[in-house]
Each structure stands twice: as C-alpha cells, then as structure tokens.
Amino acid sequence: MKIGIVGSGQIGGQIGKLWSQAGHEVLFSSRHPENLGDLVEQAGGAARAGTPEEAIAFGDVVLLSIPFVALPDFGRSMTEALGRKVVLETANPYPDRDGPMAQEVRQSGRGTGPYLREWFPGVRIVRAFNSVWDRTLATEAHRTAPRVGIPLASDHGGALEIAATLVTDAGFDPVIVGSLDRSREFDFGAPVYDTGMSGPDLRKALDLPAA
Question: What predicted TM-score, i.e. pTM, was given to this entire model?
C-alpha cells in the first residue's frame, strides 16, 4: 500500500518506519524534506522523502501527525486534496503547546472526534496512534502476544478496516472503539491514555467485545 506521512516527527517517523519495514511504500514528508535522509535510510525498503503536498498525492492512505493547533488550517487548505483517501490522525490537544483552542476542545467534553469531523468534512478520517507514547511504539512493536492495543475511531467502516490492517502490520493490536464521537474515550486525559495497555486489557477497560 502507498502511504504518505505528513509530519515525520516522533510518531509519524516511527510508524512510517514500521510500515516500510512491513513492505509498504512510504513517503515521509516535511517542509524541508532534505532533512529526512536519516529517517528514510532507517526505514529502508521503498521509503523516500518529499513535501506534504507530495505525500498527500502519493498515498492511498495518509498518516497525519502534526500539532493539534495546526489541524483547522490544514483541514481548510487540504481537505479537497485528501478527498476520499483514508487519513489516520494522531494529534492530541495539549494546552501548554496548542493554547486556547486545545483548552476549548478539552473543556467541551465532546472529545476530539467532532472537531475532526468539522475540520475535515467528507474525509475518511480515523483517530489513531494518539494514545500510545512514541517510545512504546519504538520498543513494543511486534512483541509476543498480547500486543499493545491501538484504539481506533472513525465514522467510516471501510476506513476502520484499512486502519486496523495497518495497525496489525505495524506490530500492534487494533482496537476498534466506534465512531469519531467515541474517540473521547481514549483522548489525552482519558483513563486508558498512555497506559501501554494490551489489546485485551484495552477492550475490557472500554467495555468492548473480546477480539
């Protein structure tokens, strides 16, 4: 599968490496793609670097891993380009970094999902990889079962299926929680956030059926 990575930092870079090592075609991107040589070399396979616009055009799937505060503007400028692609979105609203808009999201009690729905109208967006520390992603991928659980939420069933396959390919246990409205159950500050729970423990904590 062709995957564009928009935001090749700690989360995007690590997941992109895992996908490249699993045999997917990965295009890492940043505003300065010339600085991504080491990451591309570590990823191996068919990985390469480009601009965010090139990553979106390239990918059947896009991993969007940019600061939460940048999402509204990104949605306004890039929703048309994203079209019907599957977009896995990883950011969390950190008030210390993202300011008042992050505080608004957290205080709303609605979670991040409804905001993503508003900012990316018509896009098959999936809340994913936001609840696990990047070091956990780096050290626990492909461990002996039970694997670390990665909760997923989306309004699009087909997008959830694709995301679940990619979570498995990265070496983790996909935990489908439900619609975007349910992303609040694993957002920043939720009881399961940044716990490194296994998939079975995560399903139990979120009152989901066993896999």
Answer: 0.97
